[in-house]
Amino acid sequence: MDRPAALVPHHYVALGGRGPEDVVADSRGRVLTGLEDGRIVRLDGVTDPAAARVEVLAETGGRPLGLELLADDRLLVCDADLGLLRVDLSDGTVRILADSVAGEPLRFASNVVALSDGTLYFTVSSRRYPLDQWIGDLVEHTGTGRLLRLAPDSEAPDVLLEGLQFANGLAVSGDESFLVIAETGARRLTRYRLTGPRAGESEPFVENLPGMPDNLWRAGKDGPVWVSLAGPRVPPLELLHRAAPAVRRGVARLAVRAPYRPTGMIGVLAVDDDGTVIHHMARRHSGFRFVTSVCRTGDHLILGSLWEHGVAVCEAPAPK
């Protein structure tokens, strides 16, 4: 992978709450995100910190993570506590689309995409650890992540893929022939085929990423998939993953009790539908930490974070 270009935040915009875990941009350049206290907010004028305005659109009552904008002024929300939700942005009404799968409560839903036929696909990061103990899953390397599908007019999701290492961000190819899944615990992107003779099969798409991938975002079918890197590669962790399950479980129990502070490394990638990395941007020592999402609006990249109390605004790279 080429030497990364500089990822330098020009300014920050506070949101009045912590943890804008996923950021998405609408057609007017406004940025939507969910906060730790359950609020869904919209940020207008993000590129001008003096004029930026924050508007509360809804409250889920849980912990919103991944978001997906729909064309009819509605928003899909993966809520770590409540399941898969749909929010009407005109009046803030919240509807639960799915809160269980195969008789099991749906917890730690992470990211969602909607296809043109109305089918929804979404990820579950872990079936063993809740959001506030996410580090335990990365340490234990449980492989309990899932890819789920919710068909139109259905209330029961189907399990399409299991055994994922902390399934996280999700994006669809421009022709809707496959999905791209971020496996944070494996430092890779995985392709799940939706059409063709190999439909239903999965395979590595981009491996050995320079950091741990989190949320994915793309503006449209012609744009690249943007990948946030929540943290750097950790060789001792990868060595631990080769240890016996009992050893990993023991270390995980310690990890969830230890105080956590993210490193200053931040990074993002842009990948095309052939799996080619067309942009790689990074910074080793940043005041803005734990970048869990990225989206683009105009000439700027907007960075979200599970850790911070606002978003960072960076200059976007020139198109390739």
UniProtKB/TrEMBL annotation:
Transmembrane segments: none annotated. Keywords: Glycoprotein, Phosphoprotein. GO terms for molecular function: hydrolase activity. Signal peptide: none annotated. InterPro entries: 6-blade_b-propeller_TolB-like (IPR011042), Strictosidine_synth_cons-reg (IPR018119). Belongs to the strictosidine synthase family. This is Strictosidine synthase. It comes from Streptomyces lincolnensis.
